[in-house]
Specification:
About 5% of the residues have low confidence. The protein is built from six helices and five strands. By secondary structure, the protein is α/β, with parallel strands linked by helices.
Protein backbone atom coordinates (compact mmCIF):
# COMPACT_ATOMS: atom_id res chain seq x y z
CA UNK A 1 0.00 0.00 0.00
CA UNK A 2 2.80 2.28 0.78
CA UNK A 3 4.33 2.14 -2.72
CA UNK A 4 0.93 2.54 -4.33
CA UNK A 5 0.14 5.81 -2.53
CA UNK A 6 3.47 7.36 -3.48
CA UNK A 7 3.09 6.61 -7.19
CA UNK A 8 -0.38 8.12 -7.46
CA UNK A 9 0.33 11.21 -5.41
CA UNK A 10 -0.07 14.47 -7.30
CA UNK A 11 1.71 16.51 -4.70
CA UNK A 12 5.28 17.37 -5.63
CA UNK A 13 7.88 19.20 -3.69
CA UNK A 14 8.66 22.64 -5.11
CA UNK A 15 11.70 22.17 -7.25
CA UNK A 16 13.75 24.22 -9.62
CA UNK A 17 11.20 24.23 -12.46
CA UNK A 18 8.34 25.16 -10.14
CA UNK A 19 10.29 28.16 -8.83
CA UNK A 20 11.28 29.25 -12.37
CA UNK A 21 7.68 29.05 -13.60
CA UNK A 22 6.43 31.09 -10.65
CA UNK A 23 9.10 33.74 -11.19
CA UNK A 24 8.37 33.80 -14.90
CA UNK A 25 4.65 34.22 -14.24
CA UNK A 26 5.25 37.19 -11.92
CA UNK A 27 7.63 38.75 -14.45
CA UNK A 28 5.08 38.37 -17.24
CA UNK A 29 2.30 39.89 -15.13
CA UNK A 30 4.57 42.83 -14.27
CA UNK A 31 5.56 43.41 -17.92
CA UNK A 32 1.94 43.23 -19.09
CA UNK A 33 0.90 45.75 -16.41
CA UNK A 34 3.79 48.02 -17.41
CA UNK A 35 2.86 47.75 -21.09
CA UNK A 36 -0.80 48.56 -20.43
CA UNK A 37 0.13 51.61 -18.34
CA UNK A 38 2.90 52.82 -20.66
CA UNK A 39 0.79 55.60 -22.27
CA UNK A 40 0.04 57.02 -18.82
CA UNK A 41 3.64 56.68 -17.64
CA UNK A 42 5.10 58.40 -20.70
CA UNK A 43 2.32 61.00 -20.90
CA UNK A 44 4.14 63.00 -18.22
CA UNK A 45 7.01 63.66 -20.63
CA UNK A 46 4.64 64.37 -23.49
CA UNK A 47 2.45 66.80 -21.52
CA UNK A 48 5.12 69.45 -20.96
CA UNK A 49 5.29 70.28 -24.68
CA UNK A 50 1.58 71.05 -24.90
CA UNK A 51 0.62 74.68 -25.43
CA UNK A 52 -1.86 76.25 -23.03
CA UNK A 53 -4.08 79.26 -23.70
CA UNK A 54 -5.19 81.01 -20.51
CA UNK A 55 -8.28 83.04 -21.30
CA UNK A 56 -8.85 86.30 -19.39
CA UNK A 57 -10.42 85.58 -16.02
CA UNK A 58 -14.14 86.07 -15.57
CA UNK A 59 -14.69 88.30 -12.56
CA UNK A 60 -17.96 88.16 -10.62
CA UNK A 61 -17.93 90.74 -7.82
CA UNK A 62 -20.21 93.37 -6.35
CA UNK A 63 -17.63 96.12 -6.91
CA UNK A 64 -15.95 96.39 -10.31
CA UNK A 65 -12.54 94.66 -10.23
CA UNK A 66 -11.89 94.43 -13.96
CA UNK A 67 -8.16 95.06 -13.45
CA UNK A 68 -7.97 91.56 -11.93
CA UNK A 69 -9.17 90.00 -15.18
CA UNK A 70 -5.82 90.48 -16.89
CA UNK A 71 -3.61 90.62 -13.81
CA UNK A 72 -4.65 87.15 -12.68
CA UNK A 73 -4.31 85.87 -16.24
CA UNK A 74 -0.70 87.11 -16.30
CA UNK A 75 0.00 85.57 -12.89
CA UNK A 76 -1.25 82.15 -14.01
CA UNK A 77 0.63 82.37 -17.31
CA UNK A 78 3.87 83.14 -15.43
CA UNK A 79 3.34 80.15 -13.12
CA UNK A 80 2.74 77.82 -16.07
CA UNK A 81 5.82 79.08 -17.90
CA UNK A 82 7.90 78.42 -14.78
CA UNK A 83 6.61 74.84 -14.87
CA UNK A 84 7.88 74.46 -18.44
CA UNK A 85 4.67 74.82 -20.43
CA UNK A 86 4.56 76.85 -23.65
CA UNK A 87 1.78 79.41 -23.28
CA UNK A 88 -0.12 81.45 -25.87
CA UNK A 89 0.71 85.12 -25.35
CA UNK A 90 -2.01 87.25 -23.74
CA UNK A 91 -1.73 89.75 -26.61
CA UNK A 92 -2.60 87.03 -29.14
CA UNK A 93 -5.48 85.83 -26.96
CA UNK A 94 -6.92 89.35 -26.69
CA UNK A 95 -6.92 89.70 -30.49
CA UNK A 96 -9.25 86.70 -30.77
CA UNK A 97 -12.85 87.94 -31.10
CA UNK A 98 -14.33 85.32 -28.76
CA UNK A 99 -11.71 85.55 -26.00
CA UNK A 100 -13.47 88.47 -24.35
CA UNK A 101 -16.92 86.91 -24.63
CA UNK A 102 -18.56 85.06 -21.77
CA UNK A 103 -17.94 81.59 -23.18
CA UNK A 104 -19.35 78.84 -21.07
CA UNK A 105 -19.80 75.73 -23.17
CA UNK A 106 -16.89 73.39 -23.78
CA UNK A 107 -17.30 73.33 -27.58
CA UNK A 108 -16.90 77.12 -27.87
CA UNK A 109 -13.90 77.14 -25.56
CA UNK A 110 -12.29 74.25 -27.49
CA UNK A 111 -12.91 76.08 -30.80
CA UNK A 112 -11.26 79.21 -29.39
CA UNK A 113 -8.30 77.06 -28.33
CA UNK A 114 -7.98 75.54 -31.80
CA UNK A 115 -8.08 79.03 -33.34
CA UNK A 116 -5.24 80.04 -31.01
CA UNK A 117 -3.32 76.85 -31.90
CA UNK A 118 -3.32 75.69 -28.30
CA UNK A 119 -3.58 72.13 -27.04
CA UNK A 120 -5.32 73.11 -23.80
CA UNK A 121 -7.47 76.05 -22.71
CA UNK A 122 -7.68 77.24 -19.12
CA UNK A 123 -10.95 79.01 -18.39
CA UNK A 124 -10.98 80.55 -14.90
CA UNK A 125 -13.56 82.60 -13.04
CA UNK A 126 -13.26 84.46 -9.75
CA UNK A 127 -16.38 84.96 -7.66
CA UNK A 128 -16.35 87.15 -4.59
CA UNK A 129 -18.28 85.73 -1.64
CA UNK A 130 -18.01 88.18 1.27
CA UNK A 131 -14.30 88.49 2.06
CA UNK A 132 -13.52 85.20 0.30
CA UNK A 133 -12.93 84.56 -3.37
CA UNK A 134 -13.82 81.34 -5.15
CA UNK A 135 -11.61 80.40 -8.09
CA UNK A 136 -13.15 77.96 -10.56
CA UNK A 137 -10.94 76.42 -13.22
CA UNK A 138 -12.10 74.52 -16.27
CA UNK A 139 -9.23 72.95 -18.22
CA UNK A 140 -10.27 71.80 -21.68
CA UNK A 141 -8.41 69.50 -24.04
CA UNK A 142 -8.81 71.17 -27.44
CA UNK A 143 -8.68 67.80 -29.24
CA UNK A 144 -11.60 66.73 -26.99
CA UNK A 145 -9.97 63.33 -26.44
CA UNK A 146 -10.07 63.85 -22.68
CA UNK A 147 -12.91 65.08 -20.51
CA UNK A 148 -12.57 68.63 -19.12
CA UNK A 149 -10.91 68.94 -15.74
CA UNK A 150 -12.76 71.02 -13.16
CA UNK A 151 -11.18 72.49 -10.03
CA UNK A 152 -12.21 75.04 -7.48
CA UNK A 153 -10.52 76.58 -4.52
CA UNK A 154 -11.33 79.30 -2.04
CA UNK A 155 -8.97 82.15 -1.20
CA UNK A 156 -9.77 83.70 2.16
CA UNK A 157 -8.50 87.13 1.14
CA UNK A 158 -6.66 88.94 -1.63
CA UNK A 159 -3.24 88.20 -0.13
CA UNK A 160 -3.76 84.49 -0.72
CA UNK A 161 -4.45 84.95 -4.46
CA UNK A 162 -0.72 84.60 -5.18
CA UNK A 163 -0.66 81.21 -3.44
CA UNK A 164 -3.91 80.27 -5.19
CA UNK A 165 -2.29 80.87 -8.60
CA UNK A 166 0.49 78.44 -7.60
CA UNK A 167 -2.12 75.84 -6.68
CA UNK A 168 -4.03 76.37 -9.95
CA UNK A 169 -0.79 76.01 -11.97
CA UNK A 170 0.00 72.79 -10.08
CA UNK A 171 -3.51 71.45 -10.80
CA UNK A 172 -3.11 72.22 -14.50
CA UNK A 173 0.34 70.60 -14.55
CA UNK A 174 -0.95 67.46 -12.82
CA UNK A 175 -3.96 67.19 -15.15
CA UNK A 176 -1.98 67.53 -18.36
CA UNK A 177 0.88 65.28 -17.32
CA UNK A 178 -1.44 62.63 -15.90
CA UNK A 179 -0.42 62.83 -12.27
CA UNK A 180 -3.29 61.98 -9.95
CA UNK A 181 -3.97 64.75 -7.46
CA UNK A 182 -5.38 63.90 -4.07
Amino acid sequence: MEGYSKRNTRHREPGFFYQCNTGLAFTLVFLIALFLNAPQIFAADEGKGRTIAVLPFRIHTVTPLEHLKYGLQDMLINRLEKRGFPVVSPELILKHPEAALELSDNKSIAKTGRDLRADWVAFVSLTQIGQNASLDLKLIDVSEKRQPFLYFLVAENAEILDESMDRLALSIDNSITGIVQI
